[in-house]
Amino acid sequence: MKELVTTELKLLYRRKQELVNPLLFFVLVCSLFPLAVSPQAERLELIAPGVLWVAATLASMLSLDMLFRHDYDDGSLEQLAFGDQPLYLLMLIKIGCYWLMSGLPLVLISPLLGLMLFLPYEAMPTMLISLLLGTPVLAMLGSVGAALTVSLRKGGVIVALLVLPLFMPVIIFGSSAVVAASQGLPAAGQLLWLAAFAVAGICLAPLATASAVRIAVSCD
What we know:
Blueprint: H1 2-14, H2 16-36, H3 41-62, H4 66-73, H5 76-81, H6 87-116, H7 124-148, H8 156-182, H9 188-218
Helix pairs in contact: 1-6, 2-3, 2-6, 3-6, 3-7, 3-8, 6-7, 6-9, 7-8, 7-9, 8-9
């Protein structure tokens, strides 16, 4: 298992440019809001939770198409689908490594962007926790759509249409948790929902992704 994780991380690192683009997009979107709306701290503080979460969601969607694309093009995805290793475990490893290389950097840079948007200091821990819980869910849900559309030439837009409705509960609970924390209200309920989504995603998303991969390679 350790070898599988190491190999997957090395493969993702070779395509690091594709993973840097979502991070740059996240930074640019958050940076443009003060110019487009208002530089006043009072206004930015109100919209900061929604801006951060929407920007993180859109940035996560940018790199979904490449999750299985290279493996499909070189034929390795078909070998994984019909190999001896449990496909559930392989999908879980691929999704986890993908999140480490694409989702975790978004989480780590979010406090700086939160400061730029005048997010209250007391809401920073909640924002970090919500993104730590929510972005893996986005990756797991997105992996199902990416697997279903991997055989299509231009599946990026279709992936977005498939997974965006599934992202809505995560965005709602994630942003509302940060809003509650910024107003001095308890946010434990929203965070527990995100944690429940994460646990359910770990149990179910790799199974759904594995099934989608088998369908994609069988229909090719």
